[in-house]
C-alpha cells in the first residue's frame, strides 16, 4: 500500500517533508486525523497543535497559529502561519 506523504511549509521555510503514518490537525470545525487513503479534502486550520507520526513511529508536534491543508492522492500539503 502506498504511504502518506506530508509537506509542512510556512512563509519562511519548509518545516517537514516525508512519509508519515498519520497527521492530526486543528481544523476550524474541530480536530481531525488524516490516514492513508483519506478522501480528498481542503480545510482551513485554527490555532492549535499539528501532530504527526513518522514511519519510524516517532511522534512530533507543532504549535500553529492557523493555516490551510489539502489532502489528495495520499499527499498532505499544509501551509501554516
Give your account of this protein's structure.
Helix content is 0%, strand content 73%. By secondary structure, it is mostly beta strands. It has one domain: ATP Synthase, domain 1 (Sandwich). It has a five-stranded mixed barrel. The relative contact order is 0.31. It is found in: Endomembrane system.
CATH topology: ATP Synthase, domain 1
Q: Which whole number gives the mean pLDDT?
A: 95
Q: What low-confidence regions span 5 or more consecutive residues with pLDDT below 50?
A: none
Count the beta strands: 6
In brief:
The chain has strands at 4-9, 14-27, 30-34, 41-54, 59-72, 75-80. It has 81 residues and is an all-beta fold.
Keywords, separated by commas or semicolons:
single chain; 81 residues; mainly beta; ATP Synthase, domain 1; 5-stranded mixed barrel
Fold blueprint:
Elements (H helix, E strand, L loop, with lengths): L3 E6 L4 E14 L2 E5 L6 E14 L4 E14 L2 E6 L1
Parallel strand pairs: 1-6
Antiparallel strand pairs: 1-2, 2-3, 2-4, 4-5, 5-6
Amino acid at each position: 500500500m502506498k504511504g502518506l506523504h506530508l509537506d509542512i511549509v510556512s512563509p519562511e521555510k519548509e518545516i517537514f517533508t516525508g512519509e508519515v503514518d498519520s497527521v492530526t490537525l486543528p481544523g476550524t470545525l474541530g480536530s481531525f486525523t488524516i490516514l492513508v487513503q483519506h478522501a480528498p479534502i481542503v480545510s482551513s486550520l485554527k490555532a492549535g497543535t499539528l501532530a504527526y507520526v513518522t514511519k519510524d513511529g516517532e511522534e512530533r508536534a507543532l504549535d500553529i497559529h492557523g493555516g490551510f491543508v489539502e489532502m489528495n492522492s495520499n499527499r498532505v500539503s499544509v501551509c501554516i502561519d
